[in-house]
Write a structure and sequence with these properties.
alpha/beta; five-stranded mixed barrel; four-stranded parallel β-sheet; 17 strands; binds S-adenosylmethionine; binds iron/sulfur cluster
């Protein structure tokens, strides 16, 4: 979501005549697009901000802006604390980049949460093959650990016509894969619901693959499962964050499902779509998590056998309900639980990847592998990264092409294959 927001800011700036540079020394304007989902992201931003101070000293005319969720959270305080920052604007005010730069007013904070980020904005995408598209903004779920509803505001769905037009435009430019973005795509609700939207995207000529993130387990419908099963372009992969294997902790997290509900959804998905890959998010060391709760999470990982997970230790976010819950866990315990989770999942991911050895997979080619130019990176329908080795006879390739590839090597986080 955050990276896509940066694409929108780039789109606006390009329209104003700005040119992108990799080197901050060449820049007249530097925008930090920040994330505040966990403390580590915040720390990273503040240390980067410290580094840019020297540059501003040498080049006082340099404009520095802070955008994104930290901007929304800390607003005026950033301007008070950091005298060399000129503008602060939250993720719902991206469209104002244009106006503030034009106005020439400096030292301004825009964190008024106006809920109008739905304005259609130009987007500067670089990939050429795969594109992200917002279908909705914000979130109403208020999971007790999460800052998103406070920084990105309440849930708003874009009209389906605007989404479909954007995707048609992308298909005309040669894009073949789209990922529909929302904090909880299953609660998409405008003139269509989410399964209806997927069916409409499926009809767009030129688009070969459709993905979506993120699905909240509480809102998975039979209609959605049927669309993934029946429409070839809708990829057989679902990111379904579990967060914890303990129903007691899930309730404290305000997730509105228990472990048994989650398992029923997994069973249904696997029954209807046997090849589906399921990935997840896990939080280690949520307040009041006991050794037994942690054990239930490990048990869940063994039972479900996810294709991959993103796991994090719980990070206190000021203003959320969990921040003031009793039973906060010591950092060292959070970290050791996180390590156990990651080690277990690494074994599972490797085993699942090894099961694909010698199989033939349809790979959508993306870009040459940065580390090894004799390989081209691509992905399976199930979103596994495959480095495709090409030889003299199949030297030419087109990003966006789908090829049949035999898997000859399986690593923990990627596969290797040859063109059949
Ligand atoms: N909307 C998505 C959902 O509910 O599945 C998740 C979006 S959130 C940006 C991505 C992930 O960050 C969450 O699934 C959760 O695991 C993690 N996360 C959010 N807040 C966190 C916190 N305070 N500490 C640790 N991890 C957190
Ligand atoms: Fe955060 Fe929960 Fe909303 Fe996801 S569903 S963005 S975890 S509040």
């Amino acid at each position: 979501m955050n990276v896509h927001d940066s694409e929108k800011m780039s789109g606006i700036l390009k329209g104003q005549g700005y040119i992108e540079t990799d080197n901050p020394r060449d820049a007249d304007l530097v925008i930090f697009n920040t994330c505040s989902i966990r403390q580590k992201a915040e720390q990273k931003f503040y240390s980067e901000l410290g580094r840019i101070k020297e540059l501003k000293k040498r080049k006082p005319e340099l404009t520095i802006a802070v955008a994104g969720c930290i901007a929304q959270q800390d607003g005026q305080n950033i301007l008070k604390r950091v005298p060399y920052v000129d503008y602060v604007m939250g993720p719902q005010n991206i469209h104002k980049v244009r106006d503030i730069l034009k106005s020439g007013i400096s030292r301004i904070s825009i964190d008024d949460n106006p809920l109008i980020a739905d304005t259609e904005l130009p987007v500067e995408r670089k990939d050429g093959v795969r594109a992200w598209i917002n279908i909705m903004y914000g979130c109403n779920n208020f999971c007790s650990y999460c800052i998103v509803p406070y920084t990105r505001g309440r849930e708003r769905s874009r009209p389906s016509g605007a989404i479909l037009n954007e995707i048609k435009g992308l298909a005309d430019k040669g894009y073949v894969e789209v990922t529909l973005l929302g904090q909880n795509v299953n609660s998409y609700a405008s003139d269509a619901d989410f399964p209806e939207l997927l069916k409409a995207v499926d009809k767009i000529e030129g688009i070969k693959r459709i993905r979506f993130v993120t699905s909240n387990p509480k809102d998975i419908s039979d209609n959605l499962i049927a669309v993934i099963r029946d429409r070839d372009k809708v990829c057989e992969h679902i990111h379904l964050p579990l967060q914890s294997g303990s129903t007691r902790i899930l309730s404290l997290m305000n997730r509105k499902y228990g472990y048994d509900d989650y398992m029923r959804t997994v069973d249904k998905l696997r029954k209807e779509i046997p090849a589906i890959a399921i990935t997840s998010d896990i939080i280690a060391g949520f307040p009041d998590e006991t050794v037994e709760d942690h054990r239930l999470t490990l048990k869940a990982l063994r039972e479900i056998e996810f294709d991959g997970i993103f796991a994090f230790h719980y990070s206190v976010r000021a203003g959320t309900r969990a921040a003031t819950m009793p039973g906060q866990i010591e950092d060292s315990i959070k970290l050791s639980r996180l390590n156990e989770i990651l080690e277990l999942q690494n074994d599972i991911s490797e085993r699942k990847n090894k099961a694909l050895l010698n199989s033939v997979q349809k790979i959508l080619l993306e870009m040459p592998n940065e580390k090894d130019l004799a390989k081209i990176s691509g992905r399976t329908q199930t979103n596994k990264i495959v480095n495709v080795i090409f030889n003299e006879t199949n030297k030419t390739f087109n990003p966006g092409e789908i090829l049949c590839v035999r898997i000859i090597k399986a690593n923990r986080h990627s596969l290797e294959g040859t063109i059949t």
